Amino acid sequence: MVFTFKTFRNEADSFTRDNYLACSLLVLLGVRKGELTEAMWNEFDLNEKVWYLPQERSKSGVAIDIPLPDLAIEWLNELKVRAFGSDYVFPNRRTSKMPHMGKDTLNRAISKLFGREPGRKVQPENKMGDLGHFTVHDLRRTCRSLLASLGVPGHVAERCLNHKLKGVEGIYNRHDYFNERREALDLLAKKLAPLI
């Protein structure tokens, strides 16, 4: 992961700061790409350190309050300045019908670093070396793996990713684990801070 984010930083001409911050938040928060890239500022309370992801934008179909570690607040404050008054955390930087970052933006930016750019006869140089190709969704897997490595209980880690609990526990246990998720993401932020 260190090599990946160092490469992201070193290739700032093609891998923009917005892309970097989006990938960083995806690893830290474990949310889905579309949930983050289509997020609006009115969903966030940066003073209370909570992101209120509404039901209609949650892939699970259930609204969830996402605790925001101080590291996420730092990145979101930078994004607020970069958004330059947009209603979206990641406004579209190109002329488009979509007001927010495009669905393929992050995966295309990552693929380009691997020397793969669709539609180009001459492909860019592979900047990622021997690292196996990955997609944005793999950042979510990384979040889950890191939470496990930190000893976060599985049911809390699953709720951090906004997964529904399975089986009898999912049916009878309606607890949201907000405080436990806050502790888990704070712990993850401490691990990530020197790396990202």
Task: Provide key terms for this protein.
single chain, about 200 residues, mainly alpha, hpI Integrase, Chain A, three-stranded antiparallel beta sheet, 9 helices, 3 strands, globular
Please describe what this structure looks like.
With 196 residues, the chain is mostly helical. The protein has one domain: Intergrase catalytic core (hpI Integrase, Chain A), CATH 1.10.443.10. It is 46% helix and 5% strand. The protein is built from nine helices and three strands, in the order H-H-H-E-E-E-H-H-H-H-H-H. It has helices at 2-10, 17-29, 33-37, 70-83, 105-113, 137-149, 154-160, 167-172, 178-192, and strands at 44-45, 50-53, 64-67. A three-stranded antiparallel β-sheet has the order 1-2-3. A hairpin with a 4-residue loop joins strand 1 and strand 2 (50-53). Helix 2 runs antiparallel to helix 4 (70-83). It is globular. It starts with a helix and ends with a helix. Mean pLDDT is 90; it is low at 168-173.
Briefly say what this structure is.
With 196 residues, the protein is mainly α. Helices cover 46% and strands 5% of the residues.
